[in-house]
Amino acid sequence: MKLPGVQQTKWTGVAIFVGIVLIFPFVITQSFLLSQATFTGIYVIVALGLGLLMGYAGQISLGQAAFYGVGAYATAVLTTSYGLSPWLGLLFSILIPALLAYVMGYTMARLSGYYLAMATLAFGIIIHGVLVEWRGVTLGASGLYGIPQIQLFGMSLSQGLPYYYFVWTFAIVAIVICLNIVHSHVGRALRSIHDSEIAASAMGVNTGKYKTQIFVLSAILAGVAGWLFAHMSYSISPGSFTLDASIMFLTMVVLGGSSSVWGAVFGTVLITVIRIIVHELGETVPFITSDFEHVVYGLILILVIVFTPRGLFPPIAGWFTRIMKQRFRKNIEQTKAS
Amino acid sequence: MGEFLQFSVTGLTIGSIYAIVALGFVTIYSVTKVINLAQGEFVMLGGMIMFTFLNIGINYWISFLLTLILVMIIGWLVEWTIIRRAKGADPISLIILTIGIAIFIRGVASVVWGKGQVRIPAFSSNQSINIGPASITPQSMWVVFIMLLVVIFLYILIDKTIVGKAFQACSANPPAARLMGISPARMSSFSFTLSAGLGALAGLAVAPILFPAYDMGVMLGIKGFSAAILGGLGSAPGAVAGGLIIGFLESYGAGYISSGLKDAIAFTAILLILLIRPSGILGEKNVGKGGL
Predict the structure, then answer these.
(1) How far apart are CA A17 and CA A41, in angstroms?
(2) CATH of the domain at B265
(3) What is the helix (H) or strand (E) element at residue B129, kind and residue range?
(4) What residues in B contact A115, CB-CB < 8 Å?
């Protein structure tokens, strides 16, 4: 029975997406593009959490890179300095960001509005400062070396095809989890918070609890992404987890649109494509440097907010389904006519 | 004791800069309810444009005036071309929009001026003055003086002039202000122009001390925003208090604990203060909740 207002997960979308992910390495075989696609998978996981936080809980995080960094450093420190298995590292890459987010969430229930934006911003800067300065553990600005590869079924996962599939397995699991959350009673509660926190709490929704939960979830996803990032690269340094990274995640979510799970995925893929284009252009056009990437991000943020505040995914998806429906209707009419 | 005095002088100088930047945030916020995270970029532009004018060989004080005017025009343009078109967007979107403006300006600056730091001569001599065991550069005194000047100027402008009355009216109740013949749109562009001017002034004052580069606006903007929040968003005395507190926290943190951790120390302290007073030191209960 389908209740009004109840949205169900559309599994066809997931199936199509899994298909694209599976086929991609066979269509595009350059190793540079494959590694970019692997990074996209990692970023998708972070963007999913941030998208839920922004679009559903109506909160903003300007420090998401901090959770990503804590996840990466947790496993990197434990596997290099203490010789733990990467799989045990995963446990800590989940637990530590989750714990931090829970403590933050406690303050978040009291802080709201712009105060929260400032708090997450400050959090990102604090974590970055700690990563650089806590030299006894993180080895400071130069970073950690010699992070071991993940062992799976007696095989070590090296960069390239195996890691691509490994990362995207996590990304797709994360997508499915997010879709299910969005379409459950939690998702409805969150949407009500997003629309009006006062109305939601008047209807008996424990807004503080849900906001904290989704914040913790977004931190866990970022932590897992950090874990994947650390074991993909041989070394990590605090430079990957700056405010710029947080803003990149924000741009991904805003560009795709935070009102749906697929928006975050779409935005991440689009930003990666833009990064690759800027990179390619930079090799021929002299004034396009890596800074130019930021000019582009800035422009994207401005244009999206001014012209399509809901992001690019909803209008494009709407346009696509409309065309499909028209085709479908035409087919039916043709079969009727014949 | 000498150390303490020296750190206090540094804290007062840097705190005054944060206070001016924070006043820029408050100026825009009180009229438009927009948090302009590009405020730090106005500070950076102040320093960098001044450098270019001086490089061409224009007289110091004429460059000073030209820089101020040019940055105010940029502030007006930002409001007129972008902010105005996004009216009705929710607070999250507005934050993101101004972040976009900030990284756009910063990116353009890095293409125009490159990544290096530039050097700008001080207002007056560089000979530092010894007061007891601490020494103060004249530029530090200029910075504090300019901060005081800005506070007095804003007080007179907002409390004693008809423009200020219109400003307050828009802040308190835009529809009612409109009924009284005040245009909130014009006040909005006025607030951006004014606040860009404040940012440029902060940049001009601090440039001889900090050696500006294309990315100096990031931290100054964040610190100014934090100062405005710490003081209670919308409160001008709060912004000044917040700026000075952050300046002192940072300076003592750098001096007594670790210079690399000074930002982390300052922000941890801010978060702790906000835990005790979630709406800032001088903030009213409901300010800034803006439905986020």
Answers:
(1) 12
(2) 1.10.3470
(3) strand B129-131
(4) 229, 233, 274, 278-280, 288
Which residues, including other chains, have CB under 8 Å from residue A156's CB and lie 6 or more apart? A149, A150
The answer to ipTM > 0.85 is no
**Residue B121, SS3 per DSSP:** coil
CA B143 to chain centre: 13
Q: What is the DSSP string of B192-214?
A: HHHHHHHHHHHHHHHHHHH---T
CA distance B103 to A67: 22
Extract the tokens encoding A78: 């434990």
**Domain locations along chain A:** 11-240
Q: Nearest CA to A222 among A58, A80, A104, A82?
A: A104
Listed in sequence order, the DSSP H helices in chain A are: 11-27, 31-51, 64-81, 86-108, 114-133, 135-138, 161-182, 185-195, 197-202, 207-232, 243-256, 261-284, 292-307, 313-337
Q: Which strand (E) or helix (H) includes residue B91?
A: helix B91-113
Structural contact between residues A256 and A54, judged by C-beta atoms closer than 8 angstroms: no
Which residues of chain B lie closer than 8 angstroms to A196, CB-CB?
A: 291
Domain total for chain B? 1
Each residue's pLDDT tens digit, B240-257 = 999 999 999 999 988 888
- Please state which of the ranges A68-77, A112-121, A261-270, B231-240 shows the lowest mean pLDDT: A112-121
Cβ distance B104 to A114 less than 8 Å, yes or no, reads no
| A74: exposed, middle or buried (Cβ count in 10 Å: 0-12, 13-18, 19+) | buried
DSSP string for B22-46: HHHHHHHHHHH----TTHHHHHHHH
Asked whether A41 and A265 are in contact (CB, 8 A), the reply is: no
pTM, two decimals, is: 0.85
Q: Residue A133 is nearest to which of B35, B89, B258, comparing CB atoms?
A: B258
Q: Is residue B291 part of a domain?
A: no
Specify if B100 maps to a domain.
yes
Point out the residue among B226, B261, B275 whose CB comes nearest to the CB of A129.
B261
Q: In chain A, whose CA is at the least distance from the CA of B283?
A: A115
Taking the CA atoms of residue B81, residue B83, residue B87 and residue B88 in that order, the dihedral angle to the nearest 10 degrees is 150
Q: Which residue of B lies nearest to A195 if distances are taken between CA atoms?
A: B291
The identity of residue A99, as a single letter, is: L
pLDDT tens, residue by residue, B100-146:
999 899 888 888 888 888 888 887 777 777 777 777 888 888 889 99
Helix (H) or strand (E) holding B136: strand B134-136
Instruction: Provide the domain limits for residue B268.
Output: 2-119+137-276
Q: By percentage, how much of chain B surpasses pLDDT 70?
A: 96
Report yes or no on B131 lying in a domain: no
pLDDT higher than 50, residue A270: yes
Closest CA to B102 of A70, A170, A247, A98: A247
Q: Where are the alpha helices (DSSP H) in B127-161?
A: 138-160
Closest approach of A324 to chain B, Cα-based (Å) = 32
Other residues' Cβ atoms within 10 Å of the Cβ of residue A262? 22
